[in-house]
Amino acid sequence: MKINIFFISFSVLIIASCSNAIDADELYGKWDYIEVENFNPPDSLSREELIAQSPSITFSKDNKLVIEWGGKQLSHGTYSMDGKMIRYTEFLEGGIKREFPFLIKALGDKELVFQTMEQNYTRVKAKKR
Fold it and tell me: Which of 15, 58, 59, 81 has an alpha carbon 20 to 30 Å from 72's alpha carbon atom?
């Protein structure tokens, strides 16, 4: 009986996670940050600072990702989708690569909410141009 309950629960979990997968086509374009929240310790950027720095994230069809802050490129690399995870490979100076995921919390036609996957995570709400 316990095996049947485990199998049914596992199957429901797999089906639910597959139905929530996000296609990269839904991300293409430039997204302007409208809210940035840091957790543990809690902290948020003011609306005025966001306007002054005009941070954004751009997803290209060739799986390239660029993060801009203060009118300059802050980070660039490639990405791939894994369900609701953005698997980002950042290219650093000297040929060094750093990989880390972002979790998409919400995605609509004009709004994206994603967060880092570390203990002291940051959540970003962005609006599509």
Answer: 81
Q: Which pLDDT band holds residue 45 (cuts at 50, 70, 90)?
A: confident
Lookup: tokens for 19: 């139905």
CA nearest neighbour of 65 among 34, 100, 35 = 100
Q: What is the pTM of this model?
A: 0.81
**pLDDT value of residue 3:** 54
Domain of 32: which CATH number? Answer: 2.40.128.280
Alpha-carbon torsion angle 47, 119, 110, 15, nearest 10: -160
Q: CA 81 to CA 90: how far, in whole Å?
A: 15
Cis peptide before 41 (omega within 30 of 0): yes
